[in-house]
Amino acid sequence: MRLVVVSNRVTMPERGEKVAAGGLAVALRSALEQHGGLWFGWSGAVSSEPAAQLEPVKHGKVSYAVTDLTEAERQSYYLGFANRALWPLMHYRLGLTEFTRADYAGYLGVNRRFARLLIPLLKPDDVIWIHDYHLIPLAAELRRRGVTNRIGYFHHIPWPPAEVFGSLPFSSTLISTMTAYDLIGLQTQNDVANLIGGLVALCGAHRDGNRVRTGQREAVVQAFPIGIDVEGFRKLAQASIRAATQPVRATTAPLGSRKLVIGVDRLDYSKGIVQRLEAFGTFLRNHPEYRGDVGLLQIAPPSRSDVPEYAELDRMSDEVAGRLNAALGEFDWTPIRVVKKAYSRSALAGLYRRAQVGLVTPMRDGMNLVAKEYVAAQNPSNPGVLVLSRFAGAAHQLGEALIVNPFDTHEVAEAIRTALAMPLSERQRRFERLYATISSTDIDWWTSRYLAALSGLDIPSGDIVPPGRPKTRRNTRKSGITNSLARADMLPQASQPTHGKGGAARGKALPNAPSAG
Ligand code: F6P
Q1: What Gene Ontology biological process does one annotation of this record name (predicted)?
Q2: Are residues 415 and 293 in the same domain?
Q3: pLDDT tens digits, residue range 23-61?
Q4: Residues with a known catalytic role
Q5: For residue 509, is it within any domain?
Q6: Does pTM top 0.90 for this prediction?
Q7: pLDDT at 515 (0 to 100)
Q8: How far is the CA of 22 from the centre of ligand 1 (A)?
Q9: Which residue's CA is the closest to the ligand 1 atom numbered 10?
Q10: Distance 81 CA to ligand 1 centre (A)
Q11: What domain count does the chain have?
């Protein structure tokens, strides 16, 4: 069996590992390097005539096949439908959701083009693993063209309740394409319940436990909380502190004996960066005894800056940090530093280890791997404290963190104070449990559980069980489901623009077209 991974963003080895790439790229790199296989997706570049065929390039055990997008595709598929419609919607931010038919048509067009480019590269026993919201209809496009391989999907971000998802025009047709997958993985049981609820409510799917059926197709929907390379990251943190690499030295030297609170996130409104800065200001106002003794370092590499909501966040975070520093700072102490650039993973690991508090307070997040990395990086004899949003998927596993509601500035401020004042014995007790959890559900565990399920050898019927715990009843399903699901014609012909040679639309409305559409 060969593993074929498909994701919108592909990180080629020579491009380095910067935090802006997000947890998905880091996790997939790690999975692929272990298993070997093919990684297919967008090169990150734009060109007027992307190649009509791809020639994979091999680096170590992994072959890479990447395509450029046209500028029209980047606008409609990536910036438009994926990041102005699906992203806010999936993060429960209806007020920020911008839908246009042209963007949706561009999204479907790129998924079709990806299917056409991928098919010639496939072998009969490949297992195909597609990732994230950019590529929801890709399996339907592959099935339509006769692909019968096992196809799995993993959704890295939250899945909202049907009431929220259903507000998206064409939501029923889009969600109905998901049963073209054999296995749909999500981060938490909440997400699983929301997706199954959506399939039932929006496209009349039949549900039997965690199996969902529409027409001839049946998909298993299940939670697989993503992990990190715990051991690798722990070693990276140790080595980074020992070597005192430049960013770690430059950050920590001026701190002297001052304490450090750290936040690391792509500059994204779902991460709650502005709310976090405000909470740190409230903490300093409510506990003036800490002024001069502690600083917040927020690392926030810019992301999707062509999307207006992200440009606005960029401006607001500067404004809030500036206002708080002016109001609370002293001539020899700046309470908040916001650094808008990407750092190497080694530098981040060292900074996490130096920080007494890891502040991970997204307003909504699929998992949040920074939370796990912060724990992995700690010194067991003097660990820091994780403050974690209850709306991050990680909170479902990391109950020994200080769990907060990021919408409550006062609560976050008090958690910062509790973390800074926490006695060593309690910090150690919490750290040991957190570390045990992230180790027993690390990236290898995630990859092997998902792939075992997808390859049909082992599809558990209930929740997945971390290693070491008793296992529940399992169902076994053999591979070989063949189907030519033809569900991808999702827009009326007139609405579909064409994108170069590859993007010609061929739409007709589905018989079960959504009322929302
Ligand atoms: O995990 C969510 C995600 O959108 C990934 O799919 C993506 O690789 C990452 O965040 C970074 O986002 P982008 O690729 O838009 O920079």
Answers
A1: trehalose biosynthetic process
A2: yes
A3: 688 778 877 888 889 999 999 999 999 999 999 999 999
A4: 156, 365
A5: no
A6: no
A7: 25
A8: 6
A9: 22
A10: 14
A11: 2
